[in-house]
């Protein structure tokens, strides 16, 4: 790179961006302390592919960015040459409302997609954080989800087709536009949760859900943290069909939010049954309308990036969740750490926010991982101080599948140029 | 096969775990797609992961291809043996290893029958959702390989949505574990690509499945229509109304009559019926069922039967699930096609199929998962009439082009296997297929794991530095150097 001028390189990038733009990076583009040299915004699949092929021929390190809401997750990439932004790819390509499917470009934000789908009372049934900024590509690449994963699944469960650009400049697709399809390998799911380390998602196709006509949320303030385990177990063992069972817990308070979405009568009836199940173990109230919206907005603030601290994604088998979190709370209390929890109590997947001395955090995270054997749980640092991620690995142990994962990465990106180190396990 | 190789295989699986006799090997010549046959070099019936590992490792060291087989109910020749290879029959690995109701998980060996999973937890009020029509006799390992669906997948998803973890033997004999009873194991979603890979990436030896709570309420109706077009409109109407039933199945006159003759479900004598099932919480089902009835009435249903008892519901489903087998009563032979179209194209594609039937002179029955657009046209023919088998094949192929024209897929649940490998390039570009091969090469660089399936003539996985050496896949005629 040193022998070619910045202007020349920029011109070469611009020439491949379709109708998009390219510029020299600024301080606003710094990620994990590293500033890329250039930012490009290609506008179609061919432009993405051409950009990648050129970057590959120049051996430039590329990072894919969308809404930039999760760039600090995982392992720092180190020096990056080129940000490939999907902001030039923001269209809802097609909404086949009669088929309950949509195809969208990777750079479209979740909020904008759902605003379009709403015209036919349908939605992409995800509610991860930052929906107004997070892009479809980024949400798929991280397989990120929110409370209603309980009822509607994660992006992995909705995706039915994908178009991707490979680092060598090839454009490839897999799956299709139909909800049922077993032709060829399921690259859509392979790319989902890959953190962009295998290829750049250009468009993706999803099955959708109808927007339910009515919603009720039962907010339960729980008297004793440990009794939330029994309440959740009883809800799961019942015949109720909640779309969210969300736990929120700090040192001061523990709450559950249990949501029902259906026709009016059914939502009301199920909420009433949920209150009966909780019984005297907590105080329950059923929320609707603005009160319900406000409760969920309060809940979402747990993820707010301004909250600071370390954000861990902790997963374990559902029946052991509260036990695991109780242990964590005890450790935190004994070592002076602040701990707050929010997440999918019914699925055993929660976000844990830690605050306090990094050395102590690192030790507690390591001990937590020892309690979670591979397959039965994990603790991944999503967001945290670089110094913490130097002390303790962001991903923890990946297990004996890592060898094949490395082989897949090597096949897709043999020179290790794409989202370097950002893949799961540091791939 | 090489006698030393066979002796070593026998040492691994024992004398009761190996089949070498020509007559006995005939049993394994094909899966349920009987037109594609090959006698395996040898068949083995391992009883443990260690035995599977031993066999696969030996194949790897010897450059011998292998094919894993479950119950052999597949309809695309995915388990068709390799004539110079080892057939690994998984039926003796059929233990339920752990039932964990607190977490709604069950861990099984791949030879466990699909229905036996649900039976094992039924008394506790749980079940396993994917329900292929062959669920009485098909195994979970085969379901995983094919990403099997079934009537109730419209609401609950396919096998890939319900497999949480596996233990698998890689084509070099190494053991890996992907996923597990907890969600979101860190790492690439290799499990997502392994499910549905039709046995071309690894041999799965343990599977952890998700269980569902039985719904509080189930209501089922059968609506009769004067045309498949009207029934198709009802399907669109239900989906457009924002209702996702547990199942929406359609049968046409040919399959209705066949089912009637075989199992006497007392279906209306009409041109099309829909079976619509709703399940969930009582209040949901009650409210939505009324709306489904209204949609069917508005779509000119001339009769609606509502199952008032479990026996009546079972009668509806027996009629539907027996349809494939029942075709044997109305036609000496039939070819089961499996294609997918967007739901909104049902009427259009069914009209084309009807025209094709008239033009070809072959009766075509339709019984399918209408809710998710998965067609199963049954092309009837008589093998005794010269040329009719070929004609049926051509007709079935043409139906696939209709599916692709409509934006659909060449297979929704039966798989590509050996049967449709040559059709894959009609759906995917060379670049798409090359990209899939990158995955294949990461798992199975020597192409010894179920070779010749899914993909048309595969490319090789890169050159080995140094002097030219014949690739194992070339040696057995499965690949050519490009």
Are there runs of chain B of 5+ residues with pLDDT below 50, and where?
A: 463-469
Mean pLDDT of chain B: 93
- Please report the two chains with the greatest interface, counting residues with C-beta closer than 8 angstroms to the partner's C-beta: A-B, 91 and 91 residues
Q: What is the count of structural domains of chain B?
A: 4
Range of strand content of chain B: 15-25%
And the CATH topology of the largest domain in chain B? Vanillyl-alcohol Oxidase, Chain A, domain 3
Ends distance of chain B: 29 Å
Radius of gyration of chain B: 23 Å
CATH architecture name of the largest domain in chain A? 2-Layer Sandwich
Spatial strand arrangement across the major sheet of chain A:
15-12-14-13-17-18-16-19
Give the fraction of residues assigned to helices of chain B. Answer: 25-40%
Give the helix tally of chain B: 17
Count every helix of chain A, treating DSSP H or I runs of 4 or more residues as helices: 14
As laid out across the biggest beta sheet of chain B, the strand order is 15-12-14-13-18-20-16
Helix content of chain A: 25-40%
Indicate the CATH topology of the largest domain in chain A: Uridine Diphospho-n-acetylenolpyruvylglucosamine Reductase, domain 3
Please tell me about this protein's structure.
The complex is a heterodimer of chains A (427) and B (482). In chain A, 32% of the residues lie in helices and 25% in strands. With 427 residues, chain A is α+β, with helices and mostly antiparallel strands. Chain A has 4 domains: 96 residues, 2-Layer Sandwich (Uridine Diphospho-n-acetylenolpyruvylglucosamine Reductase, domain 2), CATH 3.30.43; 119 residues, Uridine Diphospho-n-acetylenolpyruvylglucosamine Reductase, domain 3 (2-Layer Sandwich); 88 residues, Alpha-Beta Plaits (2-Layer Sandwich); 85 residues, 2-Layer Sandwich (Alpha-Beta Plaits), CATH 3.30.70.2740. The model of chain A has no long low-confidence stretch (mean pLDDT 94). Chain B is an alpha+beta fold. Chain B has 17 helices and 20 strands. Chain B has a 7-stranded antiparallel beta sheet, with helices on both faces. Chain B has a 5-stranded antiparallel beta sheet with strand order 5-6-10-8-9. In chain B, strands 1-2-4-3 form a 4-stranded mixed beta sheet. In chain B, helix 9 crosses helix 12 and helix 13 packs antiparallel against helix 14. Chain B starts with a helix and ends in a 7-residue tail after the last helix. About 1% of the residues of chain B have low confidence.
